[in-house]
Structure formats: C-alpha cells, structure tokens
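A favour, since you know our structure tokens better than I do. Go ahead and set the record down below.
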Amino acid sequence: MKEQNKTKYEQVGLNLIYYRKKGKMTQFELAEQADVDRSTISAIERGSVGISLDMIFILADVLKIDPADLIRLNSGIDIQSIYGRD
C-alpha cells in the first residue's frame, strides 16, 4: 500500500467497523461469514492492509450493504460516531 493512500484505507476501515457494529457482528462473526481469518478483518479495520475489490464485494454481501458504502471516503464516519466518545 502506498503511504499517500494510508488515510483512505483508514477511512475504509472505519466504514467497515461502523457497518459491522451496526449489524451487531463481532470481527470473528464477520470473518467466519466472509471466509477469512479474524486477523484479516482486524487489519482491514486498522487500515494497515490494502483490500481487494473481491473482498469489498464479499464484506458488503455479508453486511447487506452496497459496496460503495465501504469505500465512501466522505462518509462522515469517524471514531466518535462509532464509539460515541468526545
């Protein structure tokens, strides 16, 4: 992953956390349904790895959302909106 895209991958990770929690799923449950290891979900959520289109489509299907929701960079989703912290 190119360093210049790091914040974009971090936003994708935040989007994934948001929709996973909205669906009341754990990382383990999402990983199991997506047929990947839980550490893969964790790495995507941290924005520390790149994510393929195939994986975006799989995660979106499991979460029952549009794939665009995962890659939307101006979603307004941040740590505060996920965890309700000030």
Remarks:
- The chain has one domain: 3-73.
- Residues 13 and 45 are 4 Å apart (CA to CA).
- The mean pLDDT is 92.
- Helices lie at 6-22, 27-34, 38-46, 53-63, 67-71, 79-83.
